Amino acid sequence: MSSARTPVRPLGTGEDSERRVSSPFLSSSRSLLQPADSRRQESAAGSTGNVNVQILAAIKSLQEQVADLQAKSTQPAASSIEQCAVSKKAPKELLTSIHSVVRHLRERLDAPMQWDTSSGFSSPENMRVTSEIVTACVNEKYPASVVQKATKKYFTTLKRRSRLQTNNKLPDARKKQRRLQRKHHKLQNRKVALSGSTTLTQEQKEKFSSILRIEYMSSEESAEESGEDEHMGERLKVLLIHTLPWRNPSVNEMFQSLDRKSARKRTSRAAEMCRKRCRASATEPSSPSGFTAKPPPSCPAWAKVSDC
Fold first, then answer.
1. Is the pTM of this model over 0.70?
2. What 3 state SS string does the chain have?
3. Which pLDDT value is given to residue 176?
């Protein structure tokens, strides 16, 4: 007796197979059963993509920087002409040329010319002299506008000098100018000494640099200038230092320390040419012009004595 056999369906076919294939559990299991090398490759591919993005961003940034540098290089740099135009002081080379031309015009034998300081700079006579000076001094480095500006400044100096001489005030003005020059020279030396100091901290340097200004400098005058040459014959070549009475002793000590640092760096020749200095006593009858008995309004409290 033969019995009917149920046909066996091949594994992986039919609806059951489809259900098994579409089962979420099987999908996740397959991902877990996926070889480790394959998973590492996918992770590496993702990391490589991030690295590529960073490299491209860096390349783009470098390209922008290069383009910016190229654009700046094509722009004309500020020439010496433009620098002279905005500078407060004319270059020494130009001033020397102007002084030389003025002297030549004044001393030449055929038709000498010189400014009339009793008239204004724009007077017809003075403009003719100015035209001669500008024509002689103009070159590729200094255009007419720069030369004329420096020429006008020199005319103003000569006019002021002539007025002082007329009023018998020129000697006093020259003394005052010498004292001011000494102050500026002292200030510059102290700035250099403070900047190069290795014993002071950066905080101390910033503190004392705030008072390295011309109004904090003591005035110096020769015995002859101060009118003491009659009873101080041996001190004619000595500079009397009038210490500012309102300055704090700690500031005086710091300034003296900076002066010693600056003196140690002088050459032997400079040391020989340097005039000796001594401090004027509190009973000295005279004080230099421009001597400030009160501290400037911006003076910090630590830089002045308590009763000022």
1. no
2. CCCCCCCCCCCCCHHHHHHHHHCHHHHHHHHHHCCHHHHHHHHHHHHHHHHHHHHHHHHHHHHHHHHHHHHHHHCCCCCHHHHHHHCCCCCHHHHHHHHHHHHHHHHCCCCCCCCCCCCCCCCHHHHHHHHHHHHHHCCCCCCHHHHHHHHHHHHHHHHHHHHHHHCCCHHHHHHHHHHHHHHHHHHHHHHHHHHCCCCCCHHHHHHHHCCCCHHHCCEEEECCCCCCCCCCHHHCCCEEEECCCCECHHHHHHHHHHHHHHHHCCCHHHHHHCCCEEECCCCCCCCCCCCCCCCCCCCCHHHECCCC
3. 85
